[in-house]
Design goal:
Strand content: 15-25%
Structural class: alpha/beta
Helix content: 40-55%
Oligomer: single chain
C-alpha cells in the first residue's frame, strides 16, 4: 500500500517533467523546420510602399522563417529590368534570395523547392496577382503555375503547380 501512495505522490511531478520535455522537443522540431531557410541569407524584397498585398506576402515570408529586408520604392520597374524578369512574368513585388529572383506572390513551397534543388535558372515568378496566392487571400486550394525563367528554363517553364 505504501508503494502505491509513493507512486501516486510522484505521478504529478513525472507528468510535469514529461510534458515539459515533449514541449521542448516540439519547439526544437519547429525551429529545425525553419533552419534551412535561414541558411540562405537575407531575402531582399522591393515593393511599393502602398501595396498591401506585397506587405502581406512579406509578413507571411517572415512567419515562414525567412529573414527579410524591404526596400520601398515608387519605381518597381527598374528592379525587374535589372534582374531580367521577362515582361510577361511581372507582378507587384520582386525579391532576391541566395542568387535567385522571386517575382510576385510565389507560394513558400515553391520557394523552398527552389532553394533546395538549386536549378540552373535565374528565378521563379507568379505572373500577375492570382487570387488565393500568398498575400492575395492565401487559399491553399487556389490553382496557378509558378514559372521558372532564365538559364535552363529559357523564357519560361512551369516550375511548380500550386493547388495540385
Amino acid at each position: 500500500m505504501k508503494s502505491i501512495k509513493t507512486l501516486l505522490a510522484f505521478t504529478p511531478a513525472a507528468a510535469l517533467v514529461l510534458g515539459l520535455a515533449s514541449f521542448g522537443a516540439v519547439g526544437m522540431a519547429h525551429a529545425d523546420s525553419h533552419a534551412g531557410k535561414m541558411d540562405h541569407g537575407t531575402m531582399h524584397v522591393t515593393k511599393s510602399s502602398t501595396c498591401g498585398c506585397c506587405g502581406a506576402w512579406v509578413a507571411l515570408a517572415r512567419e515562414e522563417g525567412y529573414d527579410i529586408e524591404v526596400t520601398d520604392t515608387r519605381d518597381v520597374t527598374t528592379v525587374k529590368l535589372e534582374n531580367d524578369v521577362p515582361g510577361t512574368m511581372w507582378s507587384c513585388h520582386t525579391a532576391v534570395i541566395d542568387g535567385y529572383v522571386v517575382e510576385g506572390h510565389v507560394p513558400f513551397a515553391a520557394l523552398a523547392k527552389l532553394l533546395e534543388e538549386r536549378p540552373y535558372i535565374s528565378g521563379i515568378a507568379v505572373p500577375g496577382m492570382p487570387f488565393g496566392s500568398p498575400g492575395m487571400g492565401d487559399d491553399p486550394t487556389a490553382r496557378y503555375d509558378v514559372l521558372a525563367f532564365g538559364g535552363d528554363a529559357g523564357e519560361g517553364a512551369v516550375f511548380y503547380q500550386a493547388g495540385q
